[in-house]
Amino acid sequence: MKWKAEDWIAVHRAAHELGMRTSATMTFGGGETLEHRLNHLEAVRQLQEETGGFTAFTPWSFTPQGAALNGFEEATAVEYLKTLAISRMYLSNIENVQSNLETQGLKVLQVGLRFGGNDVGSMLLAEGANSATEEQLRQVIRDAGFKPVQRDTLYRTMFLN
């Protein structure tokens, strides 16, 4: 079953109406146009205006196995950083924008903190080729000029690192 944007919005709207907070994502680099990306950002922005229910936004670059064989070119680090920066500016009504470890690795994640990201995600998601230890994440945050803070899913500070 292929999900439509309206279905995605309806699920998040219903969750927000029930008092649940959710996070929004956008996968890009899978053959969509820039217009598709802007339409997605606008839908997220409008729902946040309506409900205030998003805690965070994460742009994900499309990186499936064999993508080049299917005519897709993997998004470059530069394209990722541009998308991250545009997301931060366009979604000014969402407090947290995540720089992504899984699809980008530590170096691009670190630069992403200067391109609008203020979150590096969680250790639970960081498995595989671009995994990192908690100390590595803390160090790249410090090296980028920021103070690492452990938080829960609602962005409440748990520990200062």
- Alpha-beta content class: alpha/beta
Tally of DSSP β-strands: 5
Distance between the termini: 43 Å
Show unreliable segments.
Answer: none
Mind telling me the C-alpha Rg? Answer: 16 Å
Overall mean pLDDT stands at 88
Percent of residues in helices: 40-55%
Number of helices: 5
- Percentage of residues in DSSP E strands: 5-15%
Provide a concise account of the structure shown.
The protein is of the alpha/beta class and 161 residues long. It is built from five helices and five strands.
Task: Describe, in plain words, how this protein is organized in 3D.
- The chain is of the alpha/beta class and 161 residues long.
- It has five helices and five strands; from the N terminus they run αβαβαβααββ.
- The chain has a three-stranded parallel sheet.
- Helix 3 (77-90) packs across helix 4 and helix 4 runs parallel beside helix 5.
- It starts with a helix and ends with a strand.
